[in-house]
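Quick bug: DUF3558 domain-containing protein output formatted oddly.
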Amino acid sequence: MLGGLTAVVTLAGAALFIRWNTNFLGAETLCGGIVTSDDVQSAINSSGRIAEVGSQTATASSEFRCTVKRTSRFIGTEDVEVTIRTATELGAFPFTTATWKNPSTMSYFKDGASGAVSDTRGWVMLPKACWDRVGSIQGSRRIPPGPKSIAAVEATVGQGAADRKGLARLLVHAAQKVGESAGCSRTELRAPSDLSTLSRPRTTDAQNACGIQGFSPPKNSLVKGLAEPGHEQLTGETPHTWACDMYLDGSSKSQISFSVSSDANVIDGALRDSDSFRDIDGNKGVARLDEAVLHCEDGDVYFSVRWNSKYDGVLLDLAGNKPHAYAEVRRSTFQSFLDSAAGPRSCPRVTLPSE
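Here's what came back:
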C-alpha cells in the first residue's frame, strides 16, 4: 500500500516536473505561426515551458509584435522573455543609432541574410523589396513604412543571455515568414553558416588605433583627463563588416565607434536617407559629417563614425559651443579614420566635403 502510494506521488511529481520544465505537449508554433517553440528554445538555450504572453498582428498585413516567455520550476533558473517584432529603421541603423550601440560586441552573419546578434538582442534586415511593404506596430496601431524606412525583424531577450546562433536562426526564420506574408521574400534570407567571433578588449595603440596602421585620433578631438586613448574592442573577421569601439580614458566616459561594411543592404539603407550626402570630388563617392559611401575597386563600401552623448558634450565644450568649430572637430576625426581605413580596402583617398 505504502509502496503504491509512493509510486503515485513519484509519478505525479515527474508529471509536474515535465509540465513545468519542458515544453512537452506545449504549442509548437507561436505568434500566429511566425515562430516555433523549437526556435525560441534554441535562442535562449535553456529548458522550460514556452508560452506566448502577448501578441499583436496587423490586419491583412505582415507586421507583428510578440513576446514569448520561458518558465521553469524547481531548477533554479529565472524566467526569460523574448520579444520579436517587425521594425522600421532609418539609414545604416546598426551603426548610427544608440539602440545598437557598441557594434563591435555584435556577432555578424558571415553569409546569408544581413544581420547580427548579441547576448541580448539582434536584427535581420528584410530584403530591399520589403522596405516599402513592411512597417511596425506601436501600441495598438500599425505604422506603415515611410519613404526612407528600412524594414527589419528585431528581437530582445529579457534576463539571461541568448545563444547567439540560436537567436540568429529565430530571427531569420521569422524574417522568412514576414517576407512570404508581404510577398517580398528573396533567396538571401538564409540562416548564416557561421557568425563572426568576438575579440577581447585591449589597450589602444594611439598611433595605430583600432588595429589600423597609422590611424590616430586627431589631437583636437582629445582632452587630457576627460577623453584620452584608453582601450578598444574590434569585431572578429567577416567578409563584409568590421567595427571598433574606442572607450576613452577620463572622467567623461566618452566612446567613439567606427564601422565599415560592404554589405549591399547596409549601403542601400544608408543611401536611402541620402538628403544630406554630398558628392566627393572625382566621382569617388558621397559623404556627410559622419558617414561615407566610397566607390572602391571591388564595389561600394560604407564607412561611419558615431560619438556617444558624453563625448558629444566634451566636443561641444572643446569647441566653445560654436557649431562650426564643433563640426570641424568631428570632420577631422572622420577624415583621419578614412585616410587610414580606406586604402586597405582598395578604396580611394578622399577629402570630405566642407560643411
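Actually, after a second look the formatting is fine. Residues 202-345 form one domain. Closing.
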